Amino acid sequence: MNEGLGDVLTLVGRHEEARDAFGRAQVLAGNADPISRSRLHRKNGFSHSLQRHFAETAREFNLADQQLSEPGAGGAAWWEEKVQIQLERMHLFYWQGMVQEMRELAERYRSVIAERGAAVQRAEFLKMIALSMLMESRFRPSQECVELATRAVAASDEANNPAQAGHVNFVLGLIELCHGDFGCGRTEWKSSRDGRANW
To answer: For the chain, does the N or the C end have fewer beta carbons within 10 angstroms?
Structure first.
């Protein structure tokens, strides 16, 4: 119950209250399974990330990783959590303009995400790689960057996740506009707006 409350409070921007709820959930979880403990640290980190508390975010993501330790008997759920931590860490690097760190993390986990990531995670991974290329190019993206963002939209469509679709389409629109594809960019931005309206 506290974790669900924390999720809702995060969505509405009441971050300190959300972290209090996640903290209560951690106390109640006690020695629960490592995936649950890891997930709560990650969600705490995400809440900090939305407020650009970069040091606190990194600390919580590190704790989330430590809770997971080795795969053991965790199976698919273990890998899904492990991948999600790395995707959110890439986002943390993005907000700090740490392109090299984004790319290094991406290379380290590329095959794991391709093999074990959920469709929504594969879409997020492609989007983050495209954003790293956009920043690296100083907002003069290559055709490869456009193609990666296009693949992210296709993967997001496969995942059928309305909460993600709007942002992935927005990123493709931004990259297309920076690439000079003005008609395509406007279309993608309209898709991202329509997706948010439907959600």
So the answer is: N
Shared domain check, 145 and 101: no
Question: With contact defined as beta carbons under 8 Å apart, do 18 and 10 qualify?
Answer: yes
Domain count, the chain: 2
The continuous run of DSSP H or E covering 178 comes out as helix 162-179
In the three-class reduction of DSSP (H, G, I as helix; E, B as strand; rest coil), residue 12 is classed as: coil
For the entire predicted model, the pTM comes to: 0.88
| Residue 101 and residue 25 share a domain | yes
Residue 132, amino acid: S
pLDDT digits (tens, 9 = 90+) for 97-138: 999 999 999 999 999 999 999 999 999 999 999 999 999 999
